[in-house]
Amino acid sequence: MKNLILPIRFGLVTSAVLIAYFLVLSLFNKHINPAFSLVNAAITLFGIYEAVKISKLQYPEAFSYGEGFKTGIITGSVATLVFTFFFLFYATEISPSFLTNLLENINWDFQSNIGLVVFVVCIMGLSTTVVSSLTVMQLFKKSNNHVENK
């Protein structure tokens, strides 16, 4: 249980930053442009990096590649799920015209519903989580390379 508190806490903070970023974009009506979602990947990457770094500092003897990867996956998954539920709430309750504007901006030639868009948001977040966790663990893994004395 103690090992789960840190990634859940960082996942909640990361999701709060993602939500705040989305709301700032919505102030300027830029939230309908999918190009701005690239910053979401950077926010998620930074949240996972910080969670793994703190995990390694708190438990240096128990830290392994698997533990770090698990920390990253939990952190990103929590952030993704919380943001996905916020996205669903925003698109259905706060701004019902958001989905129409988003789909017009993307130039999809077919009608879509909120379920498909929310599913895509969730899958994108989870795939970003896996890639970010693998990337971060390249920085924190123990190396098997030995320096030879000359």
Keywords:
elongated; 5 helices; mainly alpha; 150 residues
Structure explained in plain terms:
The protein has helices at 2-27, 38-58, 65-94, 98-106, 114-140. The model has no long low-confidence stretch (mean pLDDT 90). Helix 1 packs antiparallel against helix 2, helix 1 runs parallel beside helix 3 (65-94) and helix 3 packs antiparallel against helix 5 (114-140). It has 5 helices and no strands. The protein is 75% helix and 0% strand. The protein has 150 residues and is an all-alpha fold.
Please give the structural blueprint.
Layout: H1 2-27, H2 38-58, H3 65-94, H4 98-106, H5 114-140
Please give a quick description of this structure.
By secondary structure, the protein is mostly helical.
Uncertain runs with pLDDT below 50, 5 residues or more?
none
Strand/helix succession: HHHHH
User: DSSP helix count?
Assistant: 5
Total beta strand runs: 0
What overall form do the CA principal axes indicate? elongated
